[in-house]
Amino acid sequence: MSSLVQSVDWLAIAPPTLAAVVGLVVLVADLFIADAKKAVLGWTSVAGLAASALLLLPLRAGDRATFCLADATDTCSYVADTFTLVIQLLVLGGALLVALLSVTALKDADRELPEGEYWFLLLSSAAGAALLPASRDLATLIVALEVASLPAFALVGIKRGDKKSSEAALKFFLSSVTATAVSLMGVSFVYATTGTLHLTRIADRIQQVDGQFHTLAQTGVVLTLVGFAFKTAAVPFHFWVPDTYVGAPLPIAAYLSVVGKAVGFSGLILVTVVAFPSYADVWGPALAALAALTMTVGNVGALRQRSTRAYSAVRLLAWSSVGQAGYLLVPIAAAAYSEDARKAIGSTVAYALMYAAVNLGAFAVAALVARRSPLNRISDYRGLYAESPLSALVLGFFLLCLAGLPPGVIGLFAKVTVFSAAVDAGLGWLAVVMAVNVVIALFYYLQWTALLFRAPEGEPAPHRIPAPLTAAIALTAVLGVVLSGAPQLVLRFSGSVLF
Predict the structure, then answer these.
(1) What is the structure's pLDDT at 2?
(2) Buried b (16+ CB within 10 A) or exposed e, 81-118
(3) Number of H helices and number of E strands within the chain?
(4) Gyration radius of the chain over CA positions
(5) Fewer CB in 10 Å around end: N or C, the chain?
(6) Can you say whether the dihedral through the CA atoms of 395, 400, 401, 407 is positive or negative?
(7) 384 occurs within a structural domain
(8) CA angle centred on 27, ends 32 and 108, rounded to 5°
(9) Whole domain around residue 435: which residue ranges?
């Protein structure tokens, strides 16, 4: 029997490890810091996430791996390749921007939110999310998925005495636990038929499964995908999204919309393209149908929000995120039909980077409006230009990026890349469905944008924007403008080899 004792490549695992360590430091420090000085915990967390992101730089020199099998050094549980680094950058960068939003939110909450627990949970979830794209066996994938998810449940329900927050957390928890249980059953079926949990070995052995176990293997593949489909908010696993986003603290809603999706999509990519390529005839059509259904239900749901009395901006962004998840699923489905699956997957990565930057920016401006209008209705954005011209211009730019219209060039190019992936894979019908949904989405994005520049109903009341919130809005705005001016910085991933 081969020995499992081996050396650990600490540099390779440094980004998620540092985030976890800082989370523990913050939790312990919270016991000894006076209430008046709790703000230091937030800035420590911001610094820890920034340092974790910076630790990705030395990993660019080449692929690294650790926790490998003693008899097969090319079969590892943790791999820091290009795909891993890009998703970790998205996760840690997104968590950093959410931390900046949280510094202001916690201060405005006037101690209603427990700061030490909040920062510990956020850093723990970010560490799990950063671990997941590096995971190359099903056990590590499931563990990383739960490490990212369990703190998120608590963060959603962290508003003490808030019924909406408690209800949102319970709904999120129960549906997520059910999906995880289904995935674990799928993993057990896959292990029973292949005798391994490592993704590359599963890819080899699952092709040679005995005929009597073929149905069991197919069932395992489908069930394993369920948990990751839930995290992506793919229909019909999307029902938790609107209520959860509205009930959660606004920075946590932003976190779930970007980092939560990154977790789901990176896991979905790994199990489909790396572990189950020979079962593309099973997951390909399923994901194509899910993509069409998800983008349609998401955009129609966002459009229907206009008919409700409490036309909530956060609820609209929640339905919008469901629609955007449908676009992100398109290239993964196309990978099942494409000769170069990695190029198709690159389109998803490119779109995810664009979406992360502009969607976090939209949530940052929503956090600004929520400071004077806690209900955060769409009507509260009327005349924002008269009150805060730069914020209105920035939000308008973000909405145009999400819609795929100039001057949001990066949004337009990202959508064209996803559209091309579907056409190149022979999924013309899916490309048509996507085109129809882009037109539907234009209506509510443009309507919101136009509202920003209408005459306000009362006198505008300019007020000071806190520095952390200003930094979050500025960072996302600069990132969006730079990417629109040089979209190749993101779009090059659509043609690169990621694994």
Answers:
(1) 46
(2) bbbbbbbbbbbbbbbbbbbbbbbbbbbebeeebbbbbb
(3) 20, 2
(4) 22
(5) N
(6) negative
(7) yes
(8) 85
(9) 277-499
Residue 308 has pLDDT above 80, yes or no: no
The pLDDT confidence band at residue 343, using thresholds 50, 70 and 90, is confident
How far, in Å, CA of 188 to CA of 222, rounded?
12
Distances (CA, A) of 353 to 119, 131, 198, 358: 24, 18, 28, 9
Q: How buried is 164 (Cβ within 10 angstroms: 0-12 exposed, 13-18 middle, 19+ buried)? A: middle
Q: b/e map of 8-22 (b: 16 or more CB within 10 Å)?
A: ebeebbbbbbbbbeb
Tokens of 439: 């037109």
**CB-based contact 51:314 (threshold 8 Å):** no
Place of tokens 């539907």: 440
Entry field: residues in the chain: 499
Tokens of 472: 């979050």
Tell me, yes or no, whether 168 lies in a domain. no
Q: Domains in the chain: how many in total?
A: 1
Token digits of residue 120? 């510990």
Q: Is residue 359 part of a domain?
A: yes
Residue 32 in tokens: 């000894």
Give residue 490's pLDDT band: very low, low, confident or very high (50, 70, 90).
confident
Does residue 111 lie in a domain region?
Answer: no
pLDDT at 376 (0 to 100): 84
pLDDT one-digit tens code per residue, 442-480:
999 998 999 888 877 666 666 678 888 889 999 999 999
The per-residue DSSP string of 156-218 comes to HT-STT-HHHHHHHHHHHHHHHHHHHHHHHHHHHHHHHHS--BHHHHHHHGGG--GGGHHHHH
